[in-house]
Amino acid sequence: MECDKCGREAVMHAAYSGLHLCETHFRVSVEKRVRRRIREDGLLSPEATPEAPETWVVGLSGGKDSVVLTHILAETFGRDPRVELVALSIHEGIEGYRDASLDASEELTAALDIEHEVVTYEEEFGLRMDQVVEDDPEDMAPCAYCGVFRRDVLERYAEALGADKLLTGHNLDDEAQTALMNLFSGDVKQMAKHFDASLGPFPARAESDRFVPRAKPLRDVPEKEVALYAHLQDLPAHITECPHASEAYRGEIQQLLLEMEESHPGTRHSIISGYEELAELAALRYRDDEGSSDFGECDRCGAPTAREVCRKCYLVEAVDEA
Questions:
Q1: From CA 303, how far away is CA 297, in angstroms rounded?
Q2: Residue 124 burial (CB count, 10 A)
Q3: Per-residue pLDDT band at 199 (split at 50, 70, 90)
Q4: Which residues have a Cβ under 8 Å from the Cβ of 55 and sit 6 or more positions away?
Q5: Left (φ > 0), alpha (ψ -120 to 50) or beta: where does 156 sit?
Q6: From its phi and psi, is residue 139 left (phi > 0), alpha (psi between -120 and 50) or beta?
Q7: Does the pLDDT value for residue 242 go beyond 80?
């Protein structure tokens, strides 16, 4: 199998495009898609200057997606005085799992000379995910607790670090799975949130904004291609599934998408293309109907929430009382 670009030995075949690519052209292809997404989403503000640079906080777990994202960002903007990159890692308190991925994160950030901050659930909430799984007062999947805690930590620390943007390593498969889950559940409000959280171009951030704008520069790249890129670049990614992972429904959606993609190449891209149009319409509807006034402050921690007590504080208290 030869590379369609240069005739050298191909390392991958993208069925959705028909292209066979060698190692060099495959790496270039991944990097081009990430950089194009950054441009199309307007991630870098035209107001950013060497004298007033933007701060981009990257959620770095040490897994393949966040490691590849951090690497490409550093290669692209590491010497750009308009951007300051900061990696933020979270230790959930899962024995024998997160320590190895943090080692990978530290190795990567040291090699790239990027500031690296580490936060733990134990310091923030006085609990560890191993404890949450053992007590489970709400009878929920571990990922449901962890997702709430992780979002809270990412948002608060991105704000504390002065972030203008918060970047996460969600890939094409992640986004297509989420899109189908929201569609199948009829969750129109979640579609609106997807548009507001994921799509550009980004407006200038006002001092009154309650959330750091998010971006997902890897969302055009399939998961297998992210993994292959990490392998070919010999990046220190920790590729091991969390021992508490139990998102059964997402697993079913993942398998459905893999089967559809195999039979109908390009399915994931088509889903995202259509979903983003629906998400934009949903965002416009709920902005008009509800505006931003629905958010008050949590009685416990002051975080933005539509409830008296935010979901994070509710779950922390439930675990403490268990």
A1: 5
A2: 17
A3: very low
A4: 83, 84, 86, 161, 162, 163, 164, 165
A5: alpha
A6: left
A7: yes
Q: Determine the residue type at 134.
A: E
Both structure tokens of 47: 């107001």
Instruction: Take residue 314 and report the two structure tokens written for it.
Output: 């509710």
Find the angle CA(24)-CA(26)-CA(29) to the nearest 5 degrees: 110
Whether residue 236 has a cis bond before it, omega within 30° of 0 = no
List, in order of start, the domains of the chain with CATH numbers.
Answer: 50-321 (3.40.50.620)
CA torsion sign, 278 to 282 to 283 to 284? positive
Q: Which residues contact 250 (CB under 8 A, 6 or more apart)?
A: 177, 181
List Cβ<8 Å contacts ≥24 apart for 107-110: 107/236, 108/60, 108/62, 108/67, 108/70, 108/71, 108/235, 108/236, 109/60, 109/70
Please give the Cα distance from 183 to 189 (Å, whole number). Answer: 11
